[in-house]
Amino acid sequence: MDGHAAVVLPLVLALVGISSGSRLRFEDSAPRLVEEPSDVIVSKGEPATLNCRAEGRPAPVVEWYKDGERVRTAPEDPRSHRMLLPSGALFFLRITHARRSKPDEGVYVCVARNHLGQAVSRNATLEVAVLRDDFRQAPSDVVVAAGEPAVMECVPPRGHPEPRISWKRNNVRLSSKDGRIAMRGGRLMISHTRKSDAGMYVCVGSNMVGERDSDPAELVVFERPVFMRRPVNQIVLADDNVDFLCEVHGDPAPTLRWRRDQGELPRGRFEIRSDSTLRLLRVRQEDEGTYTCVTENSVGKTEASATLQVHVPPQINIQPKDQSTTQGQTVTFHCGTTGNPQPAVFWQKEGSQILLFPGQPASQSGRYAVSMSGELRVSDVHHDDAGFYVCQAISVAGSTLAKAHLEVERDQSEQFPPIIRQGPANQTLPLGSTALLPCQVIGQPLPSIHWEKEGQPIQAEGHDPRVTLMENGTLQITDLEDGTL
């Protein structure tokens, strides 16, 4: 106001000088402001009004000063875009403002005068709202994985009043009602991003002048690989084919590969199918191990594993051999086995219900013992130990067996020649009936039996289907004919 007073003061003195020579009427009064101008911010090209209303007698004359200089209005200045309204207000038809010329922006004072004095208003600042075009910092493209936070930065164009910032996604205004979205200053923060958050984002700077949109920035929300189907542990038999499944989802589409933790995939015996399934062909025991599906894309990597067990049916690779011994001796039958898992081995004498297992106590097995490696030992051999002994190997993959014969020879002192205890007798039988000709013999060693007719040997097998030599030595002839044989 001091600067303004320097302009106004001479005028005041002049008015006082004039009034001193005239007669003062009792009802005259000095100017009094009943409405003063307020600070105003207005957009370029828009109309504006600075209010000022004064009372006094005689009616005061109102003038305006800008930055200490009197404002020329129309019609005093025909080219002026400012007008003094009857109320005393200063009206701007349109606010003029340019980068180098700002004729309307400044500090305004309203002065009301009559012959009794003057009234000076408060300073009122007229500012022209501005909003530049160029963003000081436009948002940049952001790539995140789903679940991660995303941040975009924006510094709006210079402006007055300072521009407010808002955001749009795909041309739709964002709302902070979504608790994951926070807009503070020029920063947009999205916590725990979702696939649906992806899109084109625009930073909007606005004030009373209008709005400015930044260039769009893209938010790309990728998804880490996620298993839809995982490989599972498998147990198969040797020579079978086996499939390990592996199905994943992700964005961008993940790559997928297989590895074997214990070495290379079986060379020449595997294939990876179009659906990423790993197929192993004609598996072997050495293919056992852990197989891992490894998948990754630009935002993550994950893997899943499964084990393969290959069961091999038991096989007897060391066959027990027939043996001959005498009473009181000890014999050992070997029986070597292979298989996966390692088969259990036990022995059994043919015709006996007793099973002989490795490590079985002597109280249960008597003179028989089976070692942990599967060998059968028979101690103090007796005559009744003679016969077939069966080695059996069994596992979850199957079973197999092998047998060997034990012959127990008698001492020479115990041997004697064959004796026919019951021989055939004369018989008269009808045609078509069956004849049984007995022949019971004893001897040591046990004699073999054969039959003759009239000095010619009888072939019991293959010669005549009606003739059979039974185990007890009896000759059986069926469907008798006259002159049989």
From TrEMBL:
Superkingdom: Eukaryota
Keyword Repeat attached: yes
Give its localization. Membrane
Pfam families reported for this sequence:
I-set, Ig_3
Query: What keywords would UniProt list here?
Result: Chemotaxis, Developmental protein, Differentiation, Disulfide bond, Glycoprotein, Immunoglobulin domain, Membrane, Neurogenesis, Phosphoprotein, Receptor, Repeat, Signal, Transmembrane, Transmembrane helix
Q: Which GO terms describe its cellular component?
A: plasma membrane
Domain Ig-like: from-to ranges? 31-127, 133-220, 225-309, 314-409, 418-485
Signal sequence annotation: 1-21
**Does Phosphoprotein appear among the keywords?**
yes
Q: Which CDD domains match?
A: IgC_1_Robo (cd07693)
- According to the record, the segments passing through the membrane are none
Q: Which SUPFAM superfamilies match?
A: Immunoglobulin
Its record classes its membrane topology as: Single-pass type I membrane protein
Using the UniProt record, give the first listed, main subcellular location.
Answer: membrane
- Which biological process annotations from GO are given for this protein? cell differentiation; chemotaxis; nervous system development
Q: Which Gene3D superfamilies match?
A: Immunoglobulins
Family recorded in the similarity comment: Belongs to the immunoglobulin superfamily. ROBO family.
Q: What is this protein called?
A: Ig-like domain-containing protein
Question: What species is this protein from?
Answer: Coilia grayii (Gray's grenadier anchovy)
Write the lineage as a comma-separated list. Answer: Eukaryota, Metazoa, Chordata, Craniata, Vertebrata
